[in-house]
Write a structure and sequence with these properties.
Blueprint: E1 5-12, E2 15-22, E3 31-36, H1 49-60, E4 63-68, H2 84-100, E5 106-111, H3 113-126, E6 136-140, E7 159-164, H4 172-180, E8 186-191, H5 202-211
């Protein structure tokens, strides 16, 4: 039976957000996953090849996956919000996903700019005892050269970092130093790839995402 794919429009703080909801191909649904794409001003969309592979790996592990375009990208309304606006978009997408699958544990994953977004939201949720925490956060290609601030503060939520060995936006020594300063629970997996976008290693990226612990 082919997997269920649903094109959606989600109400966001700046207008409608274009989104895509996909169920697992051959596995029972055991988790709801939100995936955030890279920087909107540098060509980032929910159809980015890394985001696509992340979503496919999550579906292989039993996750129903919601991808969406930040404000101003493709058919999503609004204009770039300098990070703060995009945090609002991600919160709205997460609220939709959790309302759609309230019985499931959930996680958040993001690539590059998207990894910053999910870590910020994870920190917010981790500091709010009234909110149910995500089971895990999956930051892929965290861009350390853009600065490291409060979004990586310890929040008690398992964080599984996945990184290319040749990432100009997150050099290995910087990501290792950042990771070493974090408290458990955490993991860091390097993938031998040509660049930030995991060129030459996208199938391995998908496999790593599919096998991450819950």
């Amino acid at each position: 039976m082919p997997r269920r794919i649903e094109s959606l429009e989600i109400g966001g703080p700046a207008g409608r957000l274009e989104a895509l909801l996909e169920e697992p191909e051959d596995a029972a649904i055991t988790e709801a996953a939100l995936v955030c794409h890279p920087h909107p001003l540098h060509g980032g969309t929910m159809h980015n090849k890394v985001v696509y592979r992340m979503a496919r790996g999550l579906r292989r592990s039993g996750s129903v996956v919601l991808r969406f375009n930040f404000r101003g990208v493709n058919r999503s309304e609004g204009t770039f919000g300098f990070g703060k606006g995009e945090l609002g978009d991600a919160r709205a997408a997460l609220a939709y996903l959790r309302g759609r699958y309230p019985e499931l544990p959930y996680c958040m994953a993001g690539f590059s700019f998207g990894s910053r977004i999910i870590l910020h939201i994870g920190k917010e949720i981790g500091e709010d005892p009234a909110q149910e925490r995500p089971a895990r956060l999956i930051p892929v290609g965290f861009p350390t050269v853009r600065g490291i601030d409060g979004e990586i503060a310890d929040c008690g939520i398992p964080r599984h970092f996945v990184h290319s060995t040749n990432d100009v936006y997150g050099p290995r020594d910087q990501i290792e130093a950042m990771f070493a300063a974090l408290n458990e629970p955490k993991s860091l997996r390097f993938i031998e790839a040509e660049d930030h976008f995991f060129a030459g290693a996208l199938p391995e990226l998908e496999d790593v995402i599919a096998a991450l612990p819950r």
